[in-house]
Structure formats: C-alpha cells, structure tokens
Here is the input.
Amino acid sequence: MHNNRLIRIISAGHALLAQVASSLQSPFLLVVRLYWGWQFMQTGWGKFHNLARVAQFFTSLGIPFPHANAVLVASIEFFGGALLIIGLGSRIVGLVLSFNMLVAYHSRPRSFELDLFQSWQVLWRRSLHVPVCGIAGAYLRCRFVFSRPPFGTLHV
Here is the structure.
C-alpha cells in the first residue's frame, strides 16, 4: 500500500516539475537570446569601429584576406546578435555564430591557453546548446548532434 502511495506522490511531483519547467522554457530562452544577442552586437560594433586593428590581428594569425574577413566577422557578430535579439532565425543564426566562434577558437594564438579561457569556452559551447536545440528534449537531441550531454559538469 505504501509503495503505491509513494509512486503516486513521485508521479505527481514529476508532473508538477515538468509543468513548471515547461512554463519557464520560453522566458529562459528569451533571456538567453537577449543576453547573447547583446554580447555579439557589442563585439561586432567594436570590430566595425576598429577594423584596421582587427585586420592587423587577423594578419598576425595568418588568416587570408584579413580586411575582408574582419568585415565579415564584424557583420556576422553585429547583425547575428541583432537577429538573436529580435528572435528572427535564432537557430540558423546560432549555428552561424557557433561556426564563427569555432573558427575563432581554432585560430587563436596558443598563448591563450589559460584555464580561465578554457572554462569560458566550455561555458560558451554549453550555452549555445539551449538556443540551438531548445530546452525540451535538449538532452537527447544534443547528445545525438554534439555527441555529449548539453548540461554536463563544468570543469574549471
């Protein structure tokens, strides 16, 4: 008798938790979109206003067509951030911005190998799982797409 009652209590608790989490999904995704959109807009705006320095930095990294790539990256970050803020094409924009950050990560000077930098990179990658995959079913979808759980532990 106690087993059935315990199972009903656990089932009711699970249903309540699922309902609360489902109702918080949209506000959470909105906050994530606004935050990352604002961050990308700021970095893109900064690159637009310092294109010569960005192109010089890209030259030092050996990136071909440094000025054209500086304009491209500034455009992707500024306009991609704006699109994230207004919520237009969030998944595609998230993928483009993810690719942009992936290229930036692999192009960085090796002197940037700091524990703090690496932990922020892990946080960055994990936070992109939410706008790209959404919260509902994110574990399974991201496990399939990214070959790891989206909300694992952060190694600092």
User: Anything to note?
Assistant: The chain has one domain: 25-146. Residues 25-146 form one domain.
